[in-house]
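User: My advisor asked me to double-check a structure prediction for Carboxymuconolactone decarboxylase family protein before group meeting. I don't want to rely on an old file, so could you generate it fresh from this sequence?
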Amino acid sequence: MDARLNYLSSPIAGKAAKQFMAVGRTLKGSALPALTQELVALRVSQINGCAICIDMHTKEAGAAGETSVRLNLVAAWREATVFTEAERAALELAEEGTRVADAAGGVSDEVWANAAKHYDDEQLTTLVILVSFMNSVNRLNIITRQPCAGDYEPGMFG
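Assistant: Sure, here is a fresh prediction for Carboxymuconolactone decarboxylase family protein from the sequence you gave:
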């Protein structure tokens, strides 16, 4: 499959990509645990079907020490016993924040309150921005059919 657009040859894409990368670095430097960030990024990407991001966040999580058992169970986290209550709250918020068209109310008060039991305001802010960021990146990759899933190496985008 060939990409519909070549981001590397577009001046506007280059400028926007720098901003996107800056957002990603800011989130990584936050107080939200790195492995939670990777699990959330992976789950959002699974829901959206973004192969590049699934590849990236699976490998980044593994490089950060995540186990293959937990990575393999992210898609079925509700039935899995390997996630903490905090991680489960983050994954649930990520799902409702990604499936806003499926749930007319967006993120429910119950899901928000559960996340707020486990994360402080700064971590919740990071979580909300991360979910929004991943949805945006997923859509950019899917719309333009970026074909590099499988080629990602941990740390590749620094």
